[in-house]
Specification:
Helix content: 10-25%
Number of helices: 10
Structural class: alpha+beta
Order of helices and strands: HEEEHHHHEHHEEEEEEHHHEEEEEEEE
Strand content: 15-25%
């Protein structure tokens, strides 16, 4: 059974696009009027065609009630997609898992600040004194000290990069570490715990942490690449993970969202901890417990946000607790998070500001300058690369610019800020190339905060 580990960092989840879906080079901040329900339907259908996304599901919540739940597109056999189409939600699994953990805390069965070493220590870090310090709070606030995934460091092994609780670094490994501790404490698997603590009480009959790859396969959404080609697998099963892999429907996930908006049956104190700034991600974005928090919205509103991205999977959830509103978008293609962010911008009056603050540390009015490089310089970077986990990455020259392609993410247009350093218009992610002593390019690295994906160039 295959564990969906997440092919990219959390921030690799969208490009801010105009309706023509071309990345902006010199334009000002993207502005988009809020769409009416009918207009939104038409725009989603058009975006599906432009972005090669077979299926999109949306759930819109107003006054803590689901007012719209719809699945667009057809099944793989051409029949209309059912309202209960099953989607994978990638890293949104993290907030589902976090909510379960906080319910255990509410019931007095688990402690936010008790060292996880009381129940579990991974043998890879047993000799590190930080293994005695890491707590649930550190994990849920993304301050575990771990890489996003262990394959991203040079050893390929689990390790602490800094003392837990001292700074932010997004980590799926942290969630898996906490999962192991909880399973040891309760002598139950994550699926068993989630079913009893969260899924059954909320009547989420179509939501699961693991899947055999066969049950209800007819209504599974499948996965598609950036060109709209189906990504076929010999084994669709998913092993239980706290970081990714939850399967659900738009109605089930909307029920979960409403539970969060209503306070999740948690105490006022715990809900304050969820939205409290546990760590700072950027000047525009804070990390709470499980959720990202976007503050400073109009009418003193704030947003809880999380997104997910895996190969052929993309999803986003944005909740506005003060006004009891929210939106969930699920898709089944590598370009899906373009769709997710377009819908958030179109459906919510605050959408453009939320999306900008979620992925950029700059002010809404700031646009970085782009320098000019000759085609001869750009061509030196074009070629095939391989990620540290073996996945292929390609860099090509197109329209006098560089384009990076990697399974599981939209096509990335690289904008030069120096001869060997590039950026993305609407993300803080940096891309830089390194060379051998003879001047030939040997690698491209993709950096988001403390996480770096290094891709070595493959000889033709």
């Amino acid at each position: 059974m295959k564990l969906l580990t997440g092919y990219i960092l959390f921030f690799f989840i969208t490009l801010n696009l105009t309706d023509g879906f071309c990345q902006r080079l010199n334009s000002g901040p993207h502005k988009q009027e809020q769409s009416s329900p009918n207009t939104l339907d038409a725009r989603i259908v058009q975006w599906q065609k432009d972005l090669n996304i077979p299926n999109v599901a949306i759930g819109i919540i107003e006054n803590n009630k689901l007012v719209k739940a719809k699945v667009y597109g057809n099944l793989s056999d051409g029949k209309p997609a059912p309202k209960n189409m099953i989607f994978e939600v990638a890293s949104i699994s993290k907030v589902v898992f976090s909510t379960m953990v906080l319910k255990l805390v509410q019931e007095g069965k688990w402690d936010l600040d008790e060292p996880l070493a009381h129940y579990f220590v991974d043998t890879a870090v047993a000799s590190d004194p930080y293994s005695k310090k890491i707590t649930t709070r550190h994990v849920l606030s993304q301050q575990s000290g771990f890489d996003n995934w262990r394959w991203m460091n040079s050893t390929g092994k689990l390790r602490f990069n800094f003392e837990p609780g001292t700074k932010f670094n997004y980590s799926g490994e942290g969630m898996e570490y906490l999962k192991s501790a909880i399973e040891q404490k309760f002598h139950k698997s994550l699926p068993q715990l989630a079913d009893s603590v969260l899924f059954k009480p909320l009547h989420l009959s179509d939501t699961h942490h693991e899947w055999d790859g066969k049950t209800d396969f007819a209504r599974h959404s499948r996965m598609y690449d950036t060109e709209g080609k189906q990504i076929t697998k010999t084994d669709y099963s998913i092993r239980a993970s706290a970081a990714a892999g939850v399967t659900t429907t738009i109605e089930d996930l909307s029920k979960f969202a409403i539970e969060v908006l209503k306070g999740g049956h948690l105490s006022a104190g715990l809900n304050k901890e969820i939205i409290k700034t546990q760590a700072v991600i950027s000047p525009n974005l804070q990390q709470g417990l499980g959720w990202r928090v976007v503050n400073g919205l109009p009418n003193h509103e704030y947003a809880l946000l999380h997104a997910g991205n895996d190969q052929g999977v993309a999803a986003i959830m944005v909740l506005l607790p003060k006004s009891k509103r929210g939106i969930i978008v699920l898709t089944n293609a590598d370009n899906g998070l373009m769709m997710c962010n377009n819908i958030v911008r179109a459906a919510l009056a605050e959408g453009p500001e939320i999306i900008h603050k979620a992925y950029k540390s700059t002010k809404l009015t700031e646009v970085l300058p782009v320098i000019s490089l000759t085609d001869s310089v750009l061509k030196t970077y074009a070629g095939n690369y391989k990620r540290e986990d073996g996945e292929p990455v390609t860099v090509t020259l197109k329209d006098r610019g560089l384009v990076l392609k990697m399974a599981g993410i939209p096509v990335l247009n690289l904008l030069p800020e120096a001869e060997d350093k590039f950026f993305l218009m609407d993300l803080d992610v940096k891309i830089f190339f390194t060379k051998n002593d003879d001047g030939t390019v040997n690698a491209v690295s993709i950096q988001d905060g403390g996480n770096v994906i290094k891709c070595m160039k493959v000889n033709p």
